[in-house]
Each structure stands twice: as C-alpha cells, then as structure tokens.
Specification:
With about 230 residues, this protein is α+β, with helices and mostly antiparallel strands. The protein has an eight-stranded mixed β-sheet with strand order 4-3-2-1-5-8-7-6. Helix 2 crosses helix 5, helix 3 packs across helix 6 and helix 4 crosses helix 7. About 45% of the residues are buried.
C-alpha cells in the first residue's frame, strides 16, 4: 500500500479537532504508565461518518513527551493521508487491517509493555485465568505468527490471531489491544499487562488455572451488555 496525500475536507478538519486530542491524551497516558519505551508503540482511533471512515494515528518515530495535537495524522480507510504533515506510524497497515475486519473496534493501542512482551518473545499465550481479562478481552490472548514490522503480512497475521477478541500478542514484538472506544483499548492494554505479570508469578505456584469456557462466555457477555451501565 502506497501512502499519498489527498486534499483535506472540512469534515476532515472537524475530525482532526475532535479525535487528535483523544489520541494524543491516550498516547501520553500510555507512556506515563510505562506501557512503551522511547518512541515505540502507536495509537489510533476510528471515526465513522456518512461519507466514510477516518483513522487518526500517531506519527512515526516521535517522542511522546514532545508530541502535539497538530502532529497527529489522519488517514482514510485506504490509508491515504488526508490531514497532517508527518508520516503515519509505520504500523498503520496493522491498524487499518484490524479496522477493516472488525467493525466493533474503534480504538487501537500498540504497546511494548514488559510482561506482555515477555510472553510475546516466548510465543506463549496469556491464559484465560483472570476474571477481568476474560471480561474485557473475551478469553486468552493469542500470539500472532511473526512477520516483519510494518508489513501487510504482519497485519494479516494479527487479524487472524485476534479473531473476535480484543487483544493479541505479536511474536517477538509486543501487544496490540483494542476497544469499542480508544479509552477501552487503553484499559485493555493495562489489564493484559497485569494478567501477563500474574501469569508469570503464577508459575511459582504451579501455573495458572484456566476458567471454563462457559464461564468465560458468561463474564464476557456481562461486561459487554451490563458492566458500567445504569440499572
């Protein structure tokens, strides 16, 4: 996929004002939580309109502490840049691939958090043992087969391994977490990292005990339909 610049519409400018602030806020919080190091990792949010879909994504190789609203990049669903002067994250294909195949996802956070990365570099899935993990993610966190970063092949591997869940590990790389909102995607990243840490420690006591499939389905259904909603 080749990136090309197209003219920015009025609609694109409105989206720029609304979504770039959210992407920036989540990016800085992700960094402050220690979920990434240096300039690695990336964040995006999707906005659906009557005229199409737009994805706001963090720029490539920029320090999170120095990042500003105007540094964000807005893409259309095909990957064309419609707003911004920076290059989009090198993992923009991964984000576009997930959005294309999962219409329920509107926010994506890619981290290199330590415990999740430990699981990723050992090609070990995070088991469905923590109740908050199965509620938010929908079960275990699988490992996508390795492919070179930023490639279409990596995007394909991630989409396949993600399936209908909300997080996936990238072999020898890190974590991708998703959400119905960008805020939920960040929460998912935090819960996966905590669960990865718990899994590592659980090995000291004989290993994590998986929750039954029916219990996982029940808790996921509760989270999606009832959790955090008024009575």
């Amino acid at each position: 996929m080749q990136i090309k610049i197209v003219s920015e519409s009025l609609e694109g400018k409105v989206i720029n004002m609304n979504t770039c602030k959210k992407v920036l806020e989540v990016s800085k919080k992700m960094a402050s939580l220690g979920l990434i190091q240096g300039t690695w990792g990336n964040v995006s949010a999707r906005v659906k309109t009557d005229k199409g879909e737009y994805i706001t994504i963090t720029p490539s190789g920029m320090d999170y502490e120095k990042m500003k609203v105007e540094d964000m990049v807005i893409l259309d669903a095909s990957g064309n840049v419609i707003s911004g002067t920076n290059k989009p994250s090198s993992e923009y294909r991964l984000h576009l691939g997930i959005y294309k195949h999962r219409k329920d996802i509107n926010g994506i956070v890619h981290t290199h958090s330590p415990y999740s990365t430990a699981m990723a570099i050992s090609h070990t899935e995070i088991p469905p043992a923590c109740e908050d993990l199965v509620q938010v993610i929908g079960g275990s966190v699988s490992v996508a087969s390795y492919a070179h970063p930023g490639t279409v092949k990596l995007s394909e591997n991630v989409v396949f391994a993600l399936s209908d869940k909300m997080a996936v590990l990238l072999a020898n790389h890190g974590l991708v977490s998703c959400g119905r909102t960008l805020e939920e995607a960040l929460k998912a990243a935090q819960i996966v990292e905590k669960s990865a840490m718990a899994t590592v420690y659980a090995k000291l006591f004989g290993g994590a005990i998986h929750l039954p499939k029916k219990e996982i389905e029940k808790m996921r259904d509760f989270y999606v339909k009832s959790y955090g909603k008024p009575i």
